[in-house]
Amino acid sequence: MSENGRSEASRNEFRLDLRWQWLILLLVLGAVVYLLSPVLMPFVAAALFAYLADPIVDRLERWMGRGFAVSLVFFVVAVVVTAIVLVLVPFIERQISAFLGQLPVWIDWFQTRATPWLEARFGISPDVLDTQKLIGALQANWKEAGGFAASALARVSKSGLTVVGWVLNLVMIPVVAFYLLRDWDVLVERIHALIPRSIEPVVSRLAHESDDVLGAFLRGQLSVMVALGVFYGAGLWLVGVSVGPLIGMIAGLISFVPYLGAITGVVMGVIAALVQYQDWYHVLLVLGVFVVGQTLEGYVLVPRLVGEKIGLHPVAVIFAVLAGGELFGFLGVLLALPVASVVMVMLRYLYQRYTQSELYTTRAEPVIVVAGTPMADIGGNDAAAVERPPSGAGTSPTEP
């Protein structure tokens, strides 16, 4: 073997070893994240906040230093959060009280109106829809849940370290977020400097695409959720549903899963309208609110605030949320869709590489086998056994 052939073979062996090293590194990082997931929650929340606020701080740096800009952002966020808590907490409390007050009326309406109608139209047995059994089961489960909650609360109150841990996590989030946001650009530059130069262009390209996707999702989808919650709540309140704002907020908050927010809001809104007004006019008004909301989401909010860069199928969204929750708990639910968005960027890159590879683009010249040729002769050099079509000829085999 020549010297060039040996050097080429050694380079290929080095590349293979390098790929295995990257695979082992990714597996180790995944295992570390899985093992440390119970304590990563405050750091992940702080990193998400720093990532979302970094563009605002970068714009403020045109007129002031970065440290002062970060302090100003934290002050504004603290004022806004305090105002929201002071306004929303009493409002939500009143909405929940109104809902609990109407719950007996909902149960009575289901017993006296919905059950006979379902039995007459669909032949459903009343035993299947026996609300007394349902109430009894709920009461039993509620007592068990209450006992479990009481015992858990007792254990927590006895364990001072648990309470201290919760308080420390809450305090750590703004502290860690402040330092991450202050040094965000420095951290990004240092991570960029650690990337091997051979793969730096590809990594930088994928990082920029991932940043676009994550920015579109985190900033855009949160804006869509808030806008839908406000629209649904205001619309149901204008229609006259007393617990409409609460239903609207619930529908908006879970709208990150496609169609789940709308379906939940429609079911709760229709039941509330039927119980409160007992006519179909208000049911149609409730349906109109959600039809307009879905149209607004599909044609205005999502194209303008999120765009088409994420491209996650609804089934993929549901699977990502369930898989993240199963693997990492609440931390997994929090990171499921951002991670899925980055995975979509990687899959698009792999698809592009595949469509440009020789495996995909190479067109092998067709080989025609003459009928009656033994299989042992195919693949050899026997011209009588295998013939190639002449240039410009059709697809019919030539005579031997």
Automatic annotation (TrEMBL):
Protein name (database record): AI-2E family transporter
Classification via InterPro entries: AI-2E-like
Transmembrane portions of the chain: 20-53, 65-92, 163-181, 222-240, 246-274, 281-302, 314-347
Family according to the record: Belongs to the autoinducer-2 exporter (AI-2E) (TC 2.A.86) family.
Cellular compartments annotated: Membrane
Region (Disordered) residue spans: 380-400
Keywords: Membrane, Transmembrane, Transmembrane helix
Record organism: Dokdonella soli
Membrane topology: Multi-pass membrane protein
Main location: membrane
